[in-house]
Amino acid sequence: MPREDLIFVGACDIAGQVRGKGFPAADIESRLRKGVGWTHSNMMQTAFGAILDTPFGTGGDLTIVPDPACEVVVDFGDGSVDEHFFLGDIRNTDGTAWECCPREFLRRAVAGLEAARGLNLIAAFEHEFVYTGVEDAPGHAYSLGAFRRQGAFGESFLGALTDAGVTPDSFLPEYGSRQYEVTVTPQNPVTAADQAVIVRELARATAHRLGFRTIFSPMIAPDGVGNGVHIHFSFRDRDGAPATHDRSGRLGLSAVAEHFCAGVLRHLPAICAITAPSPVSYLRLTPNRWAPTRIDIAAQDRGLALRVCPVFVAADAADADRQFNIEFRVADAAASPHMALGALIRAGTDGIEQALRLPEGGVAETLPTTLADALTAMEASASVRDWFGPVFLDAYLRHKRSEVAYVSEWSPAEMCARYGAVY
C-alpha cells in the first residue's frame, strides 16, 4: 500500500511527556524554519492527558521548531517503521523563545552559571526502569541471570542509542524486580537533557518492537523499589579544565563546587517540586528504598540528596580531577529533564553568588513528604519566582496542583498502577 515517510517533532513538557506533531518527510526544510503549530494550553496536559487547569484558555498560537542537533533516526532492522523524530524548541509565532519552553528554561540557567563564575557544567542522567519482557525472579538483583533474561532488549536498546548519537556507558540489572539501569556519557547541559529524553523514548521504542514496555514511573508497586533518575554533574572552567575537585576541600570539593552544592541543599525543598514532580514521586522518597530522604551531602551515601561519587583507580591527579563528580538523587522520570537540570543549576548558581558554605555537622532537614508540600515551598521561594517569571510559575503551579487534586482519592496501589500505565 502507498506510504508517506513521516517525521515527528516534539518537546518534553511539564509532565515529562514528549508531545508534538508529525509531518511528511518531504516538508523537512520548511519545518526546520517554521516548525509545527502548537498552542499554549497544550503545555498544561497532565501525565494522564487531561488539561485540568490552564491560565491560557483556548487562545494563542505557538510553534515547535525542530532542532537539527536533536534528530533521531533509528532503523531497528525488523521491518518496522524507522524511529524518526526531532526534539525542538517551543517558540512564539515570530520565532522568539516562548517563556514557558523547558529547553529555554535550561538555557537561561546555563547562561546564569556562566555569568556568575565563568563555569560550564557537564552532566549525565542515569535512568532506572522496569522492563516487562522478563519474569519476576526474586533474588536476582544485579545478577547475571537477570542480565541474561532480558534477551535482545539490552543490545537492541544500546544499539539504538548509538545510532542516535548517544554514547552508552553501562546497562545492568538493578535492585528492584525486573528493574534495569542505563547510563550514558556526560555532555553539556542542554545536550545531556536532550539525551535523557532520547534515552527514555528509545527504551520505549525498543521494548515496543519486542512486544513489551519499559516503565519509568517512580513507583509501580507500593511495597516495591522505585525508579529514580540520578543526575551526575561536574564543572569545567573557561579553558575546559576540571573545576570540581580540591583534595584539601571539604569532601574533596573545590570552593565553587561547595558553594554550588550548598545552594542546591538550601533550595531543595522548593526545587524537588520540579525534580520529583508527581504525587507518586513521594512514595519513592521514603526510608528503606535506596532513595534519598534527607537534605544533605556526603561521600558515597545513597540515602542523601547529594552524593560525592568515588574516583576509581586514577592514573594520576589529573585523572582524579576529571573523574570527580557529584550525584543529585532527588529526581525521577516524571520530570522534564530540561526543567530538573535547570532548577538544579539555578539553585547551585545562587549558592555560588552568595558564597554559601555547607553547614558543619550536616543538615537535619528532611525532604518534603508530598508534592503539595513541595509546591508550597516552591511558591514561597522568591528565588524560584525569579527563575520562572510570573507566567511560567503560575502555569507550573496550576498544572501540578490540578494533578494533586485529580489523584487525591486514589490509594497507593491505584496511584502506582495508574502512573505505571502512563510513564
Oligomer: single chain
**Largest beta-sheet characterization:** 8 strands, mixed
CATH homologous superfamily heading of the largest domain? Glutamine synthetase/guanido kinase, catalytic domain
Distance between the termini: 33 Å
Low-confidence sequence ranges: none
Identify the CATH architecture of the largest domain: 2-Layer Sandwich
Range of strand content:
15-25%
Give me the strand/helix succession.
EEHEEEHEHHEEHEEHHEEHEHHHHH
Structural class: alpha+beta
Give the secondary structure arrangement, pairings included.
Blueprint lengths: L5 E7 L5 E7 L3 H7 L1 E3 L23 E13 L8 E10 L9 H16 L2 E12 L12 H6 L3 H11 L4 E6 L5 E6 L4 H21 L4 E2 L13 E8 L18 H21 L5 H4 L9 E6 L4 E5 L8 H7 L2 E3 L8 H17 L17 H10 L1 H7 L1 H17 L5 H11 L1
Parallel strand pairs: 1-5, 11-12
Antiparallel strand pairs: 1-2, 3-4, 4-5, 6-8, 6-9, 6-10, 7-8, 10-13, 12-13
Helix pairs in contact: 2-9, 4-5, 5-9, 6-9, 6-10, 10-12, 11-12
Describe the structure.
- The radius of gyration is 21 Å and the shape is globular.
- It contains 13 helices and 13 strands.
- The model has no long low-confidence stretch (mean pLDDT 94).
- It folds into 2 domains: 6-98, Glutamine synthetase, N-terminal domain (Ubiquitin-like (UB roll)), CATH 3.10.20; 105-422, Glutamine synthetase/guanido kinase, catalytic domain (Creatine Kinase, Chain A, domain 2, 2-Layer Sandwich).
- It is α+β, with helices and mostly antiparallel strands and 423 residues long.
- Strands 6, 7, 8, 9, 10, 11, 12 and 13 form an 8-stranded mixed beta sheet that branches. A 5-stranded mixed beta sheet has the order 2-1-5-4-3, with helices on both faces.
- It is 37% helix and 21% strand.
